[in-house]
Amino acid sequence: QAESRCANLSRPATAPVELSLFYESLCPACRWFLVQQLFTAWLLLPEEALSITLVPYGNAQERNVSGKWQFQCQHGSEECLGNMIETCLMHEAQNFSTYFPLIFCLESGSSVTKNLEACLQVYAPQLDAGRVAACVQGDAGANLMHRNAQLTEALDPPHQYVPWILINGKHTEELQEQAQTSLLGLVCHLYQGEKPEACGGSRAPKALSNCRH
C-alpha cells in the first residue's frame, strides 16, 4: 500500500472554491439561495472543493447606545432575532457541518425564529439550546453581530443588495448571476482539483437520452 500512499502525498492540495454569503434571515431571495442552491451544492460536493462563510446581517444598521450595540433590520425585529440566532448557532457549534444544517432547517421552515428547538432536536441534539438563547439575549450575541456588521461594511465594492455573494473573495455581477443560476456548475467550473462526482466526473452515471416520439 506504500505506493498508493506516496502517490497521494505527492499531489499538491488544491484550494477549495471559497464562497462568502452576506445575507439576512428573512430576505426571500436569501432564503431561496441558501436553501435551494447553497445547501444543495454543499451536500453534493466534498469539503475540499467548496468552503463557505456565512455572514447574517445584510441591510441592517447598528448603533451604539450607552456602550451596547443595537440593531435595526430591513424586515423588522423578527429578522434581527433570526440573524442573531444564526450567528449564535455558528458561535456555539463552531463546526460548519454542525451549524449549516441547523441554519438550513431554520431558513427552509415556516418560521426562522420559532423552530430552533425542533431544528436542534433533529440536526444537533448535542447543542445546548440554553447556551444559544443566552448568547442571543446577551452581550456575546450583540458583539458577534457587531463583527458581522463590520465585515459587511468592509465589503469592496460595497453591497447594494442581498444575497451578496463573493467567490474567492471577489464580487462581480456575472459571478453573482452564475451563483444564483447554478452554483454547483460554477463551483465545478472553478475548482482546479480532480472533479468530484457531482461535477459529472468519470464515475458519474451518464445522462439518459430523451424519449423521442
Automatic annotation (TrEMBL):
It comes from Lophotis ruficrista. The gene is Ifi30. This is Gamma-interferon-inducible lysosomal thiol reductase. GO terms for cellular component: extracellular region; lysosome. GO terms for biological process: immune system process. Gene3D superfamilies: Glutaredoxin. Its main location: secreted. One of its GO terms (molecular function) is oxidoreductase activity, acting on a sulfur group of donors, disulfide as acceptor. Dimer; disulfide-linked. The lineage of its organism: Eukaryota, Metazoa, Chordata, Craniata, Vertebrata. It is found in: Secreted; Lysosome.
